Amino acid sequence: MTCLTGVRVLDLSRVFSGPWAAQMLADFGADVIKVERPGRGDDVRQQGLRARDAEGNETRETSSFLAMNRGKRSITVDIARPEGQALVRQLAAGSDIVIENFKAGDLARYGLDHFALRALNPRLVYCSISGFGQTGPYRHLPGYDPLFQSMSGLMSITGHADDEPGGGPMRVGYSVGDITAGFYAMAAILAALRHRDLVSGEGQHIDLALLDAQLASMSHVAMMYLVSGRQPPRLGNASPITCPWQSFECADGQLVVAVGNDPQFAAFCQVLGHPEWAADDRFATNPQRARNRQVLVPMLAEVLRRRPVAEWHQRFEAAGVPTGPINDFEQVFADPQVTHRQMRLTLPHPTAGSVPQVANPVKFSQTPVQYHRAPPLLGEHTVEVLRERLSLDDARIAQLRQDQVI
Length: 406
Known about the structure:
The protein has 16 helices and 13 strands. The chain is of the alpha/beta class. It folds into 2 domains: 8-217 and 357-402, Crotonobetainyl-coa:carnitine coa-transferase, domain 1 (Rossmann fold, 3-Layer(aba) Sandwich); 245-325, formyl-coa transferase, domain 3 (2-Layer Sandwich). It has a 6-stranded parallel β-sheet with strand order 5-2-1-6-7-8, with helices on both faces. Strand 12 (344-349) and strand 13 (353-358) form a beta hairpin. Helix 5 packs across helix 7. The chain is elongated. The chain starts with 7 loop residues before the first strand and ends with a helix.
């Protein structure tokens, strides 16, 4: 048994945010059916690097699709056709959760919006993820992650200052807005599911905007502006409120230092060979260090550049000072802590032989995550699901295929 054994999810979403939420639900034990367009499927089946089979030949499976769709069953249905819409409505009638990330209002054209589906199934938890939400002046606009990074203020605080080399706003190196929205979506879905099961007996509609989610995740940085009225500075790898909290050049690379309190700073200075710095009135407390960073940081940098990263890291680790190297992914997946936590896994795959996966980080004590299914081939489970869920016979399925509904 897993946490969500018996929970049925109908995943109408594409690309990243919705599929990410649905994959987490699948990891936790839900039965997730992914509905895709016949012939083409989810857009991310055409994005990313191609997985290779055991002989080294490219397959049709892309890294982007493999990252978001573990544990699901894929069916192909043309929702632009009345017959396809009817199939989706029947599946929704027997589901607990629907996830979709079409533009606001798009699914109403097909009779697949939350009003239509919850009329068939009042217990349905229906989660709509869109760029700007179901209301407001931007509700009709499409959008992708770079827009939400820029419009939420994230890029205004990411990157080096304008007067530094390479200065200017910078995008975070992955689709942080999509993934963040996926996390909010899963939390909201589980909360609505609990309310249905323990309080109301009814489902509800969840309206989640990527712009809202990215802004909310700015948390303490956005609050700096709200309490002061001042734009937080863009400081590259440094923090505006904690010091030292940044990367430093060492003899053979960079080391990230994250000194979170005054005792750690005293230990840090001891390792550097300058215990007197911790008693200096300019640096004795974190607010003083942050205020005098332009004096302190060059002093630290001068010492740190004398030794290699590994030596400093070992010394600081022994002293209880948080530091770490800047790993590339080869180093990440070779790291003994990452290896111990089993954050990389491999799943058998029908065309690639096997595919690597980044594991779910949650470790349940009673209901561990079970990886029972690799990301599916396009339409791999269409016949299986139509037979199992809708009790369609072979003749009816053959007719739907002939009519290009599935």
